[in-house]
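Appendix C: a fully annotated inverse folding record. The material below is reproduced so that readers can follow the format used throughout the book. The structure is listed first as tokens, followed by the designed sequence.
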């Protein structure tokens, strides 16, 4: 199997199960929390504060990605189309040159 075919196969898998993958991450996090609670590894106040700050930073990064994406999208490259293609061209500049769906990335981080 070539690398391109492998990417297509992995992409199709991730697209098909995109709604369930975050649930797996939440389940793994809950498992770590339960195991730590059972063995008496209760976080201190500083650890809770650090976790809250890290969570806030990640959520704000997601919001910033969404703001940059919406604010710098050129005209005629996007549209809410369900019947036919409205966009005149594919956007491959800015954040779209690094991420295929930056709004999805921003939503995931938030």
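Designed amino acids, in order:
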């Amino acid at each position: 199997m070539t690398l391109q075919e492998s990417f297509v196969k992995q992409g199709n898998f991730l697209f098909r199960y995109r709604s369930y993958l975050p649930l797996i991450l939440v389940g793994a996090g809950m498992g770590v929390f339960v195991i730590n609670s059972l063995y008496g590894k209760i976080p201190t106040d500083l650890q809770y504060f650090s976790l809250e700050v890290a969570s806030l930073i990640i959520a704000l990064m997601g919001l910033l990605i969404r703001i940059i994406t919406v604010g710098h999208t050129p005209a005629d490259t996007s549209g809410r189309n369900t019947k036919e293609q409205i966009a005149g061209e594919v956007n491959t500049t800015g954040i779209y040159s690094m991420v295929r769906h930056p709004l999805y990335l921003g939503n995931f981080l938030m």
